[in-house]
């Protein structure tokens, strides 16, 4: 079973040879696997851009100061085909974001999960899967 | 088909749109006659996808050319399950947005699945032929050049061409499955077929007037394409590649021949042949159907908002600093 | 007797009426009626290009030195009569300040320098050809510069789902003219190299009309209440690229600007 998995991944790797978008490797270069985080904040703006969209989120720090974080998400193009528009996620939407912090130290992260106050995930994928980054399974 | 402006209540519910069942090529029945464009070309127009779970090369341990429908479904389900697996927190794979959340998992949109065990149809073993001596020499030279260039994040030029937003594999030719947003829009006008590849808003305009290929001084990432109709099949020949992203180790003198035939209202049969004597001693071919899918194709402006490049390079430089002076805590 | 007189007058009146109508049509289109394509519409298919200095500055301007010393006369700016009707752009006072700041810092700020998509209408008068591919449901504009693409929806029309560089275009035919209504722009493109700019409220209406077998009239109305005090217009002819085998080539300029954008993040050579 393990051997088969390796072969399938290798095939996928071939498909990815010409710089494909599912480039996990590049993300692990941009964000630090050793710096998992959970942010709670309200949406300032969802930049619906490519190759990856960016959520601008106002996060209240423990000392009461509000900082603006930039959280990387996926291309909006398929969501647009499914009916999502720039009006779908209202400004001010409260979000809990689980992800990993940028390696360059800025107020940036990649969002593994974007979770709404009722526990459901933004857009698709039903409820948030159990566990947060950093938990050992 | 837009949603009306929504409030928070609506976005709490996941967008309910079941992924359409994968489309497979028709296997029997009377031959299909495609509709015609106003100027009399067989009509290939519309939105199409080559998203598929079929690999280019036949997997190790598989000897048959074609699965039974049950086997194909099982293979596809296994591949889909692997992609949908939740990544483990604290692993490299987890350092990524979740494709499923953005509808970017293959299973969440139309899949152009065939029963084949590989896209490659020739040679019969379903594998890319071995490189000839010239091809091996070139591969060694490229590997050496990569080594000299340094680490993968020493400079933007060391990063993959797709990450740099120059061109992605969906453009081709030949056009390969892009992993997500694997969509095309075909529009025809008298004397031309236009193919728009979603990523990166890349257009090939194929003239049908038998004009000659340009002189060898002009070379392009997508080569230069010339097309003509053979009955209901559009035959496109492409040369004049610049060799900078040569398909599977090929040379700049590769010739790619593509054949597009509409075999059903919702399917185009797409075949390509690679002819590159500077790399392989024989031609090889693959078949990768295009299934009808939904638009629109939103502008994939890539370079303009490619913040990741600057982030990655800055992160790498921060790590370099950290390594050079570990006594200093990394801070910004 | 009376009937004959009436008949002559009526005929004369009709003749005058027709002559006036023809004169009006002539004034608008120069009397040219484009051949119809197989779709029954004016055939605008082809490869087209503007020949003017609008991309340097859409307002009237003198010739000027190159912003880059080493380019000498090669990088210098040709003069232009301007393509803006009325001459001057109707900026609000704050917007005019921003335009002038843009202009003073144009090497750093002009999106063209960074190989960013050119927006509309700038894409039309970049010094590169573009091709019109005309079908019933979609009319595509494919620009050589940066491979910029515009989809004009002639059917299945919707509003822009999100902002983009080239906007979201809905088109319709009005007699001889293709009328393209575009909204959904981001605020990042410029109208030229001289800092003329817009906001994300930009609304552009273009009218494209054949004026001869090998030329088009291109008329544009620009509206942006966040930047301008009123709508304004520009117009110019577009010329067909008539050489045999004319085609849109690659100007994939991302490669050409990578060191400019990211060179400062390169790993320094080891000591």
Helix content of chain B: 10-25%
Q: How would you name the oligomeric state of the polypeptide chains in this document?
A: heterotrimer
Q: Name the poorly predicted regions of chain C.
A: 22-27
The percentage of residues in β strands of chain B lies in 15-25%
Tally of domains of chain C: 2
Tell me the structural class of chain B: alpha+beta
For the report, how would you describe the main beta sheet of chain B?
Answer: 11 strands, antiparallel
User: Would you list the SSEs of chain C in sequence order as H and E?
Assistant: HEHHHEEEEEEEEH
Query: Approximately how much beta-strand content do the residues of chain C carry?
Result: 15-25%
Which series of helices and strands of chain B comes N to C?
HEHEHEEEEEEEEEH
Task: Give the largest chain-chain interface (CB within 8 Å).
Answer: A-B, 84 and 90 residues
Q: How would you characterize the largest beta sheet of chain C?
A: 9 strands, mixed, barrel
Low-confidence stretches of chain B: 1-20
Helix share bin of chain C: 10-25%
């Amino acid at each position: 079973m393990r051997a088969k998995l390796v072969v399938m991944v290798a095939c996928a790797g071939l498909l990815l040879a010409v710089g494909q978008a599912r480039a996990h490797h590049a993300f692990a270069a941009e964000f630090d696997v050793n710096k998992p985080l959970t942010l709670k904040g309200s949406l300032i703006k969802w930049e619906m851009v490519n190759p990856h969209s960016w959520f601008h989120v106002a996060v209240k720090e423990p000392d009461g100061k509000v900082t603006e974080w930039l959280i990387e998400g996926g291309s909006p193009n398929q969501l647009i085909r499914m009916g999502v528009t720039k009006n779908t996620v209202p400004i001010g939407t409260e979000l809990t974001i689980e992800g990993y912090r940028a390696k360059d130290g800025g107020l940036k992260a990649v969002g593994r999960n974007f979770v709404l106050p009722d526990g459901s995930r933004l857009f698709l994928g039903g409820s948030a899967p159990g566990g947060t980054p950093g938990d050992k399974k | 088909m837009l949603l009306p402006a929504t409030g928070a209540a609506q976005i709490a519910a996941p967008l309910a749109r079941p992924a359409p069942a994968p489309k497979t090529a028709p296997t029997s029945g009377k031959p299909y006659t495609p509709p015609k464009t106003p100027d009399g070309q067989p009509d290939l127009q519309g939105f199409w996808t080559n998203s598929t779970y079929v690999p280019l090369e036949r997997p190790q341990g598989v000897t048959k050319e074609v699965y039974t429908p049950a086997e194909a479904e099982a293979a596809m389900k296994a591949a889909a399950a692997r992609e949908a697996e939740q990544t483990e927190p604290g692993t490299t794979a987890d350092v990524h947005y979740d494709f499923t959340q953005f509808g970017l998992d293959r299973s969440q949109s139309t899949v152009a699945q065939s029963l084949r065990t590989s896209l490659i149809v020739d040679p019969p073993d379903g594998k890319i032929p071995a490189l000839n001596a010239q091809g091996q020499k070139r591969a060694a030279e490229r590997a050496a050049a990569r080594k000299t260039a340094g680490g993968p994040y020493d400079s933007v030029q060391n990063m993959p061409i797709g990450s740099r937003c120059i061109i992605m594999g969906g453009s081709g030719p030949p056009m390969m499955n892009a992993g997500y947003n694997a969509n095309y829009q075909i529009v025809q006008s008298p004397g031309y077929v236009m193919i728009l590849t979603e990523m990166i808003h890349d257009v090939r305009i194929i003239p049908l007037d038998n004009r000659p290929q340009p002189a060898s001084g002009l070379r392009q990432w997508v080569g230069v394409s010339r097309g003509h109709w053979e009955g209901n099949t559009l035959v496109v020949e492409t040369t004049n590649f610049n060799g900078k992203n040569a398909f599977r180790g090929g040379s700049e003198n590769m010739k790619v021949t593509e054949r597009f035939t509409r075999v059903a209202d919702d399917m185009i049969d797409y075949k390509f042949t690679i002819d590159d004597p500077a790399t392989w001693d024989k031609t090889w071919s693959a078949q990768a159907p295009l299934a009808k899918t939904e638009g629109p194709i939103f502008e994939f402006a890539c370079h303009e908002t490619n913040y990741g490049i600057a982030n990655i390079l800055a992160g790498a430089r921060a790590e370099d600093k950290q390594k050079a002076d570990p006594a200093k805590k990394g801070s910004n | 007797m009376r009937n004959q007189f009436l008949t002559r007058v009526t005929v004369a009146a009709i003749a005058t009426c027709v002559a006036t109508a023809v004169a009006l049509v002539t004034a608008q289109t120069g009397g040219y009626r484009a051949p119809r394509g197989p779709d029954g519409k004016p055939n605008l298919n082809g490869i087209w290009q503007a020949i003017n200095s609008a991309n340097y500055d859409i307002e009237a301007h003198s010739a000027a030195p190159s912003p880059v010393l080493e380019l000498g006369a090669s990088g210098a700016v040709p003069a232009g009569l301007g393509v803006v009707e009325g001459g001057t752009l109707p900026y609000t006072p704050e917007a005019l300040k921003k335009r002038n700041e843009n202009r003073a810092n144009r090497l750093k700020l002009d999106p063209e320098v960074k190989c960013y998509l050119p927006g509309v209408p700038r894409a039309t008068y970049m010094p590169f050809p573009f091709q019109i591919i005309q079908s019933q449901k979609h009319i595509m504009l494919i620009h050589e510069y940066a491979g910029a693409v515009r989809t004009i929806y002639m059917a299945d029309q919707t509003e822009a789902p999100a902002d983009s560089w080239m906007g979201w275009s809905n088109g319709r035919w009005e007699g001889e003219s293709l009328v393209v209504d575009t909204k959904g722009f981001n605020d990042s493109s410029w109208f030229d190299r001289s800092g003329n700019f817009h906001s994300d409220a930009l609304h552009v209406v273009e009218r494209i009309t054949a004026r001869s077998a090998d030329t088009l009239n291109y008329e544009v109305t620009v509206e942006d209440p966040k930047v301008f005090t009123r709508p304004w217009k520009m117009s110019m002819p577009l010329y067909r690229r008539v050489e045999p085998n004319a085609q849109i080539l690659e100007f994939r300029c991302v490669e050409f600007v990578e060191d400019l954008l990211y060179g400062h993040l390169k790993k320094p050579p080891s000591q």
